[in-house]
Amino acid sequence: MGRRRWWLAKMGLAGVPGEPISTEPYSNRPTFLKLNRDVKADVVIVGGGIAEISVAYEAVKKGLSVALIEARDTLSGETGRTSSHLASELDDRFYELIKGYVIVEVPDTDPQYSKKNDLPDEVEALKKLGIKHNYENKGKIGEAYTGAILEFPHQATFHPTKYLNGILKVLKEKHSNQFQAYTHTRMKSYKDLDDAVIATIEGGNTVEGRHMLMATNVPLPEIIIKDAYYRTYCIAMRAPKGAYKDVLLYDNGDPYVYVRKTAHPDPKYEYLVVGGEDHKVRQETSEGYGKHYQHLEAGQIVKPNDYMAFIGQNTGFDKNVYVSTGDSGNELTHGVIVGRLITDLMIGVQNPWASLYSPSRKPKPRTILEEISENVNQNLQFAKYIKTDVSNIESIPRKLGKPIAVYKDGEGNISKFSAICPHMKGVVAWNASEMSWDCPVHGSRFGGLTGKCVMGPAIRSLATKGEAVEKA
Question: What is the dihedral angle through the alpha carbons of 9, 11, 14, 19, rounded to the nearest 10 degrees?
Answer without folding.
Answer: 110
